[in-house]
Amino acid sequence: MKNNITLTRMNSRNAEANETKERIIKIVNSLAISASLLAFTLGCLLYYMTGYGIIFYPAMLESALFLSTLLITRYSKPVYGKQLMFLLHSISIWFFGVLLGPASQIYLFAPFLAFCVFLVFEKPLSQVLALVASAVVMILVVLNFRYPVIASLPLSKETELYLHWLVIIAATFLNGTALYYFAKESRFQNKQLKSLVNQLDKANQAMRIYVRETTHEIRSPLNVVNSILQNYIETADQGKKTVQVGIAHLEAVHFACQDMQLVMSNALGWAKIEEGKDEICHSPFHFSDWVQHLCDTYEYLAKRRSVHINISLSDNLPEYILADKSKLRTIIVNLLSNAIKFTTFRSIITVKAGMKNNQLVVSVTDQGVGISADRKEHIFDPYVSEPGQHTESSGLGLPIARHMARMMGGDLSVTDNPDGGGSIFTLRMPVEITTPPPATDHIIDYSILNGLKVLVVDDDHLNHLAFSLALKRMGIEAILADSGPQGLTKARLHQPDAILMDMIMPYTSGVEMLSQFRADRQLRQIPFILVSGNAYSEVKEEVIASGADGFLSKPVNIEQLYTILRDLVIMADTTGPVSIAR
To answer: Rounded to whole angstroms, what are the CA distances from 62 to 57, 93, 218?
Structure first.
């Protein structure tokens, strides 16, 4: 399903294309009609003065051919009409130049042909070739005046005098017309260029705001992680290799990481919206349990500010609904995150959910200082800060949440909290009541992976540590390599059960290494999983196209790592190779 931004951009591009087409058609048609009238008039006058049919009939044919360009611009591409116009003018000037001899004063039409070249051809090479060709033919016609190869028509002195002034009038008319449209087109292109420069300035300014505010949003949770870890490092007994860490501190670090991951997810989500690549994927799930678990997860973050999340679920909520769970989660998580950020200390956030008019209605109420009426719509713009209310900007969360709500046929609005200040963010969206999905086995049994060997290829030693801890927890032996070539050597030596390889490494990328592993008879059957810090859809498409068996995006979730290893290694033993991109 295309989103509103995509449709707006498509409509804008179509409007620009139609405007350009109409502009070209007007230019070509105007030049065609004026050239046809000029050819007809001059043909009649010259026939009257000279009586030569060889002047009259080609002039009438020329007039008709010029009018034919009207049909070409209407029923075919306008550019074909432009090219035909240039060709007809060039042939006519050269033909009558040879026919009428020096009296034709062909050089007067040189500016006209030059202007036409720049109006008709867009590529510099085409312009140069057309100019050179026109100049060469014109020089040949002028040389024919001195050294006649093709004899011109014999004209009387009186006819030559009249012809002299007719040519001046015709050349002035054609040069003036071409100059007018050339100047008009130049002004239009200049206007377009200025518009593009303004857009680039706005994009540059938006990028600066994006980098500044995203960095700011990451600094807060990063400060939590840094402060806690720095405290333990500085107070630890250097003689001991271990340190005792409080559960509360570990939870704080974990949720700070969740905050940072939300910021990154929002940034990626906004990029998808900008590119028009966001899609809807419906699945059935138990809404009440799901939203309860989501609120419980954010209860810890709320406790850091002495805030409690109160959940009120209506009795009319269906047991299972069919909706895009991922997008719904993004909406509610962003609302909860903003509410926790901007509510007052020692306050209550209330989450209500129910059905009304066949729509799911979810509201998140905080007890902050509220939002002024004239700013209620602006808070859904990227990176908006409320004076006197927010100590930090609302980032990308709210615009993403509203976009996703509207994408799913609903909307997200904000009103004042009538019970003591603050704001109420309300999501309304249609959902389909459905039956429970088929039961699946979600039990995690790390013991089934015991004894496996997994080769981890990454140039960052911190990633070695992270993967080693996760694999050790599953009872898996981790074999570490710093580069693709070293990984190839260790794979031949240890014959691992699976390979985790970073996509971006110095000298040789993960995709390039994949082809080398596939070319090795001893290693080609080993499941190959590419890992990247980039979660864009293009990267996943590249992974699929490369022939890798799986994909993981950093930060790697241990459950995802377990699932992909279980499916690729254990299931492959019984059902053959399985290809899964996560």
So the answer is: 8, 11, 71
